[in-house]
Amino acid sequence: MTGTRNTARGRAAATVLALALALPLAGASGALAAPSAPDRTTAEAPATRPELPRPTGKYAVGRDTLHLVDKSRKDLWDPTKPRELMASVYYPASGEGGRATAYTSLASARALITYYKLDVSPAAYSSTRTYARAGAPAARGRFPLVLLSPGFTAPRSTLTHLAEDLASRGYVVATVDHAHEAAGGEFEGGRMPPCLGCDPDSTVPGSRITENRAQDLSYVLDRLVGGKSGKAGESTEGAEPAWRRAKMIDPERIGSGGHSIGGAATMALMNTDRRVRAGTNMDGGIQIKPEGLRGRPFLMLGTQQTTQPDDPYDWAGAWPLMDGWKRWLAVAGSGHFTFTDAPVVLQQLGDVDPDAPISGKRSAEITRAYIGAFYDQHLRGIKRPLLEGPTPGNPEVTFHQP
C-alpha cells in the first residue's frame, strides 16, 4: 500500500491486470500482489494509536452504515448472487452525540495488512482514531451529496479522512465497498466477501470493472435519494430511499469522486447518470465518451507521473474531451496512495515509503484542500481562488495544461 504505481513490490503480480485495464486497479505497489502468509509481527495491543487529521469544517460528523443489494444485477465476480454493496454515510451532525466509531475491525485490518504485505500491527492500524460518531443527531438543512469509491483491492475505510472532512464542511458523503473487490472490505455482520477480483490471473477487462462500478454508484444514488438512475428519458421518482436521513440530501447537488479505479468509475458514472453534477479523480484512469461530459466540471488530482507522455492513464488524451470546467493537478513527491488514508496512518506506524516522500500530514492537507475547494465551487457555488492557479502555500501542486 506504499509507493507509486511503479513500485517494484507486487509489480509482477500486477502486470496482467494492469495491462488489461490500461489503468491501474489500485496501483502497482502491493495492491495486486497475491496474499502473503499471515503477518507474524502483529500484536493484539497497539503500541501506539494513530489518528486521522481532525476535520476542518464547522460541523460535527455523524456516520451511518448501509447494506445495499441490487437484485436486478448479478455480481460480476460471483454470478450466482446479486450485486452487494456497503456504504458508510457521513453527514453534518449537530453536537457531539452518538457513539465513537472504529476505523476498521481487527479482522478487516488483518486482511488488509496481510494482503498488502505491510509490516505493521493490525491492532494498531484498526485502533486509528476517527472523528465521526455513529447515530449522531443530524444538523438541520439540506446538503450536497458526494460519493467516494476506493481503489481496487482497497476498502472504503481508506477514504475516511477525506469523507470526515467533507462532512464537517457541509456535505453528505457516502464511501462505498464493492463486493469482492477489496481486501478487508467489511459487510453486514462483519462478513468480508473474498476479494475474487484480487486474483492476478483474472481476465475481466478493466473497462468492464469500471463500468460495473459506475453501475454500483448509480444504484447507491438510487437508494440514497430514491428513484432510478438519471439517464436520459428515465424517471427518478418512485422508490423510497434506504437511508433514514435522506431528506438531508439536496438531489440537485450531487458529486462523485474516487481513488484509482474509483476515480475512473466516477467519469464512467458521469457518462451515464446526469444526476452527477461534478466529478473528481484521484490518480485513476480515464474512461470518457467522445461526446464528453456535457459541460460538467471535472478535477484530476494525481502524481507527477500523470504528466508523462507514456503514462498508461493517458490523462492527456482525455483532456480535450473534457468540455466543461477542468483542472489537472500534479503533486510533487506523491505516490499512488498519497490521496488516501494510507500515508497518514502508516507513517505514524513507522511504514514510510521512500518513493513518495511527501508526508502524511501534507498528503491529507493537499487532498482535502483541493477536493473540498472543487466541490465548494461546483456544488455550493462558493468561489475558491485556490483552484485558479499555483499558490505559495502549496508549492508541491502544479497546474498542468497539455
UniProtKB/TrEMBL annotation:
Looking at the record, which segments are called Disordered?
32-59
Note the InterPro entries from the entry: AB_hydrolase_fold
Instruction: List the keywords (alphabetical).
Output: Hydrolase, Lipid degradation, Lipid metabolism, Signal
Q: Does the record carry Hydrolase as a key word?
A: yes
Query: Is Lipid metabolism included in the keywords of this UniProt record?
Result: yes
Q: Which Gene Ontology molecular-function terms are recorded?
A: 1-alkyl-2-acetylglycerophosphocholine esterase activity
What name appears for this protein in its UniProt entry?
Alpha/beta hydrolase
Pfam families this protein is in?
PAF-AH_p_II
- A biological process from GO: lipid catabolic process
Organism of origin: Streptomyces spectabilis
**SUPFAM superfamilies xrefs:** alpha/beta-Hydrolases
The signal peptide annotation in the UniProt record is 1-33
